[in-house]
Amino acid sequence: xxxxxxxxxxxxxxxxxxxxxxxxxxxxxxxxxxxxxxxxxxxxxxxxxxxxxxxxxxxxxxxxxxxxxxxxxxxxxxxxxxxxxxxxxxxxxxxxxxxxxxxxxxxxxxxxxxxxxxxxxxxxxxxxxxxxxxxxxxxxxxxxxxxxxxxxxxxxxxxxxxxxxxxxxxxxxxxxxxxxxxxxxxxxxxxxxxxxxxxxxxxxxxxxxxxxxxxxxxxxxxxxxxxxxxxxxxxxxxxxxxxxxxxxxxxxxxxxxxxxxxxxxxxxxxxxxxxxxxxxxxxxxxxxxxxxxxxxxxxxxxxxxxxxxxxxxxxxxxxxxxxxxxxxxxxxxxxxxxxxxxxxxxxxxxxxxxxxxxxxxxxxxxxxxxxxxxxxxxxxxxxxxxxxxxxxxxxxxxxxxxxxxxxxxxxxxxxxxxxxxxxxxxxxxxxxxxxxxxxxxxxxxxxxxxxxxxxxxxxxxxxxxxxxxxxxxxxxxxxxxxxxxxxxxxxx
Amino acid sequence: xxxxxxxxxxxxxxxxxxxxxxxxxxxxxxxxxxxxxxxxxxxxxxxxxxxxxxxxxxxxxxxxxxxxxxxxxxxxxxxxxxxxxxxxxxxxxxxxxxxxxxx
Lengths: 492, 103
Description:
The complex is a heterodimer of chains A (492) and B (103).
Chain A: H1 11-14, E1 15-26, E2 63-64, H2 65-77, E3 81-82, E4 85-86, E5 88-92, E6 102-106, E7 112-121, E8 124-137, E9 141-143, E10 152-156, E11 163-169, H3 176-193, E12 205-215, E13 225-230, H4 233-252, E14 261-265, E15 270-273, E16 286-287, E17 294-295, H5 298-305, H6 312-323, H7 327-333, H8 337-349, H9 353-371, H10 382-393, H11 399-412, H12 416-423, H13 431-444, H14 446-453, H15 460-470, H16 477-490
Parallel strand pairs in A: 13-14
Antiparallel strand pairs in A: 1-11, 1-12, 3-7, 4-17, 5-6, 5-16, 7-8, 8-11, 9-10, 12-13, 14-15
Helix pairs in contact in A: 3-4, 8-9, 8-10, 9-10, 11-12, 13-15, 13-16, 15-16
Chain B: H1 5-14, H2 21-41, E1 69-70, H3 80-84, E2 95-98
Helix pairs in contact in B: 1-2
């Protein structure tokens, strides 16, 4: 990542960054917020349009009930208070992708306020406030490059009117890392509620960042800049790093920060001021006369609250105590709801849920890490882990064999069941064959035999190890123990 | 006078209007007379009256507002040709407008 000229040591520490984030998530309704046009991504340009979303004169908006439910559900998951009566407002500005000349949004009476997200910070957690969550319609898409007529912009209005929730944080974050954590948690929570797919490539999650710096100890915020057009959480962290250093450098040089919107160029790793006509933002909000107040009363709120799933943080805590896994593994296993569901389903179906958890932790994670694989791409599914756990539990395979099978599964990119069925590792459960091995080992280690018979019975571990080694791990450990004891005890 | 020529230019700019000097003078006069009338209304003390954005009472609960919603059900869109037919400029797929981003 490109940086400015390195700040002299100690200078960075004199300043405290202040970061606030605005996130737009597209709600997974089938139709737009104010008309029955499809919200499907990727349709041919200007085919999902009607008089309402084209902004034709006389067309009237009618609110999509599902969009309200989804936004309310998201707000509840983010610990917001729901406003029983919220008001839609017109935000007036001119841009070709907004055919009406105004965006229908919410202003002084948004759907929800006063929420928070907890993010890990140091050894504990830190609470990042959420100022508000409101409903609004998306604008269309304007394209300027790659078309034959370079003096024109090309407009596709399929996206116009797609339902969005805008989620505005308090300026509570103090480092790019905290901003990154906040976004990660926010996305995770929204994904759990199922109200958005949060797909950044398709624009169903978008983020703008406000950042300023102030001298440590100073109460008053510095002048902020807004960073737009960043399409991954990693780039947001980088853009913030860059912008913070830029602010400090300007201030240290005796200059002043100009309040402006800047774009991040991820190839160059730097931000640029937008060279648009300097125009004061004056949206002249006023209540939308074409829509009634939005009333989400206590009864409806309760219905929506009933749809709230167990949220990731609560789930992690429960999984740690229920399966005895580490916080870190709970984190990895809850990276998305599907995976966590699969794990829990497998664990509960297995004879010992704890053993499933142990195998995930002890055998699966390390191999994934070594291969640089995300857990979603694991060749061994959660069902496979559960199967191996049961085989281990019933002494059908030894842990040595299990390790071999896991290795093979990772080599071939196969699930555990496939490898197991093919290899069908033959456990030596034939007593006669085992006894032969045991006899040889007892004969070859007279000193240990003496120790055992002298009362040091823990030496049996040594014998088990030797037998397993001699049998290439294929002896049934239960049987080996039993036979060894019998032989060592009886031959006195 | 509350509204100056500068205010008129600013508001015209926000409204994407180009006004001639004569029109600006007329607007200045009109806007000032509107604000004078607002002053008259402001003589009434409304500090204890909550602002009303709709005449319907919002005390009725969600059920009373059920008619304000539609179900999340697809309805036919306009045929593409119909949607484009009044466009001042199009390449057949997109609406074309004068370029909005400076190179």
